């Protein structure tokens, strides 16, 4: 039986939080292809047109890998694509923003306040903000870009005292405003959940979009019956060794991860697996 | 009379500290071309072979601009080039590491200790370390990579309380060892001089390589007599607007800076000025 192939991508290790959720929640054996554009990271501080160019290169790469669906594990690129672009891909595209917005719409009551944190691009694009405002059921909403969070996480400093300082630096106004919900609008930020939660206190519920992606993917998969173990192949544009070390730690993996280096020049070409 | 053209490059705004020194110390009118590869920044955390590729593209770009000399304002790339490569360029290449090493060799006595901070690549390449050890006249030497310093500076946070925390985080061991000299082995770090100096205390003399580059450039220029004002053209691979804002602030410029965007794909092609 042909196994389902799913492409998951991010600029770096942030999207592993999405991959982890998919591995945990999908009850079937899937072939995952995780692409991390570590050579061009961070995405969130770069010009929007440039990052849009990167995404379509990644789509081309997935086309050559012959995947059956793409799950974006990157809020920045998700915010840069139009609904039409997402719908007109040759295979299903699963957004990370959409399910989190739906979850919030179902959870909030008229008097709730929401804050969103993300990269500079994500905050400029204001997709979470606009989608939640359209619903109209929020008393107050604000957003804030935290550009140092991605480098912090990529440096493996998520649980350091330094991170607590950086979190306090960026979230000062949000803490003062004490929102009912805080959306982690960048998958890298999932690793900072403890520090963010500790700083903001119990009143604020942290919403991690990575936790809400799997639902629609599971619906799409339906019943396939393959109960063998899922497999993951990693593709990175930067150092394979470096990524292997980080991903092994972040995924809490015991086995040897299969990490392939991809030359940026060859992204659009056919790759022999 | 033909004015001298000098190409200066860095991954981002760090090299502006070198440009500032050249503008201040060269007594003649020069046409400067400052290239910042902001779309591919940071350099210091990327694979070495990839960054070497970037440098040769930048050299190609300068070749098409027909510059008379290249001044590197980037320690990372300087540390990646061999002596032979630097000498076999079609025009003179001025290192940022060399003059700082010479200055230190002349300044240190047998009992002095030295610490070097830089990007991950610069620290791995150990060029400062090896060149200073070869001299043998040092009692103790150490080096440390500080990967968050470049993002901090690019974020415009050099004088924030957050920077003091990050400085304390990275320089803890160096403070304990209390070296006589600390080399700022990355041009971005020049902007953190105050925070670094405040943290390490008076015993440690901060050596900023950007301040030592101009001497050999001035010797090479000789007497040309053009006493008109120097001109600067900026070329960036990322957002021109963003760079203009940052550079205007960092250079303390009153006038309008001329910042051009260069497509990465067109780096090696002929550019119409």
From TrEMBL, chains A, B:
Keywords: Cell shape, Cell wall biogenesis/degradation, Isomerase, Peptidoglycan synthesis. Pathway: Cell wall biogenesis; peptidoglycan biosynthesis. GO terms for biological process: cell wall organization; peptidoglycan biosynthetic process; regulation of cell shape. Substrate binds at residues 10-11, 43-44, 75-76, 187-188. It catalyses: L-glutamate = D-glutamate. Transmembrane segments: none annotated. PROSITE patterns: ASP_GLU_RACEMASE_2. The keyword Isomerase applies. GO terms for molecular function: glutamate racemase activity. Its EC number is 5.1.1.3. Pfam families: Asp_Glu_race. It is an enzyme of class 5 (isomerase). The active site is at residues 74, 186. Provides the (R)-glutamate required for cell wall biosynthesis. PANTHER family: GLUTAMATE RACEMASE (PTHR21198:SF2). Belongs to the aspartate/glutamate racemases family. This is Glutamate racemase.
């Amino acid at each position: 039986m042909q196994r389902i192939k799913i492409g998951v991508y991010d600029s770096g290790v942030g999207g592993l939080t999405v991959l982890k959720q998919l591995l945990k929640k999908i009850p079937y054996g899937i072939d995952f292809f995780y692409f991390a554009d570590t050579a061009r990271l961070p995405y969130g501080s770069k010009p929007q047109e440039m990052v849009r160019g990167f995404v379509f290169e990644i789509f081309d790469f997935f086309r050559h890998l012959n995947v059956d669906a793409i799950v974006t594990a990157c809020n920045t690129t998700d915010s840069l694509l139009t609904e039409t672009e997402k719908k007109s891909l040759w295979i299903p595209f699963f957004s990370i923003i959409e399910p989190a917005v739906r979850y919030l719409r179902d959870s909030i009551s008229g008097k709730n306040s929401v804050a969103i944190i993300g990269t500079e691009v994500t905050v400029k694009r204001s997709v979470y903000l606009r989608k939640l405002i359209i619903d109209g059921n929020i008393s107050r909403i604000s957003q804030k870009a935290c550009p140092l969070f991605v480098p912090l996480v990529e440096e493996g400093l998520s649980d350091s005292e330094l991170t607590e300082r950086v979190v306090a630096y960026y979230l000062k106004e949000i803490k003062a405003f004490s929102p009912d919900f805080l959306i982690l609008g960048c998958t890298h930020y999932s690793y900072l959940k403890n520090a963010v939660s500790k700083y903001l206190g119990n009143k604020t519920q942290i919403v991690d979009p990575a936790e809400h992606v799997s639902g629609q993917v599971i619906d799409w998969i339906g019943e396939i019956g393959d109960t063998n173990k899922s497999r993951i192949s990693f593709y990175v544009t930067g150092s394979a060794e470096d990524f292997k070390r980080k991903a092994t730690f972040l995924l809490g993996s015991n086995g040897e991860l299969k990490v392939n280096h991809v030359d940026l020049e060859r992204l659009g070409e056919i790759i022999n697996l």
